[in-house]
Amino acid sequence: MSFPRKDNPFDKPKKYWSLQEAKIKIAAYCAYQDRCQMEVRNKLYEKGVYGDKAEDLIAEMISEGFLNEERFAQSFVRGKYRLKKWGRNRIQLELKQKQVSPYCIKSGLKEIDPEEYWEILKRETEKKYYSIKEQDEFKKRYKTTQYLMGRGFEMDLIQSALEELN
Hints:
Elements: H1 19-32, H2 37-46, H3 51-63, H4 69-82, H5 88-97, H6 102-109, H7 114-131, H8 137-150, H9 155-165
Helix pairs in contact: 4-6, 7-8, 7-9, 8-9
């Protein structure tokens, strides 16, 4: 005796976009949130728009102001720096992975205020340092340093923040 299987939504074939539909959907996709070219290109490929058609559509989105990598880099930096408390190195690495140009990365990193950056680093250092239940001072400093480096802060600034803590 067999039972009918439920329809699995993952078994259904993907719906591809026509060129006209792609233009409307990508405009909405870019208007909702700043995007980089790589994200838009991946979305188009996912929906079956390839090659010159995709590149023409991306060029059209740039000319109409829907797609601006410099604006994307600036908003990305603001968000990751203020909300997620990431350091410059991590932000720069993430933007490189998204294939954002070095000029746009540099422009985006100008959004970081040095005094505010230092205050965030000191606060994160203090929070992590005092949350570690290690008795050995060296291990405590090491774990704090590793944590902050993973967050993308620069080693010399981390050391200064740790020195200021003691």
